[in-house]
Design goal:
This protein is mostly helical. The chain is built from three helices and no strands.
Length: 90
């Protein structure tokens, strides 16, 4: 195996872990959706969203990941989570 194949294999493994972690995140989000539904809470909570963005940015910036990437990625995750919550409540 050459270096490029080794690097690609490592990326494949990291990608699997990312997918596993996202899956776990959405499983936990389902519990949050249920909680919010039982307590008549709105799906979108701006204060919490700002808190999440701020904490994730500071952590990721320490890891030298570009801020724009963090914002875009978290925006996609959040939008998907809200869409799933609406579907779940239907």
């Amino acid at each position: 195996m050459n270096d490029l194949e080794i690097f690609r294999t490592e990326i494949d493994e990291i990608d699997k872990k990312l997918i596993d972690n996202l899956s776990m995140r959405f499983m936990l989000a389902q519990k949050i959706w249920k909680y919010k539904d039982e307590h008549n809470m709105p799906p979108f909570q701006p204060e919490r969203w700002q808190q999440v963005i701020k904490s994730r940015k500071s952590y990721w910036l320490e890891k030298w990941i570009e801020e724009r990437f963090i914002e875009e990625m978290w925006d996609v995750i959040h939008k998907y989570s809200l869409e799933m919550e609406i579907i779940w409540k239907s």
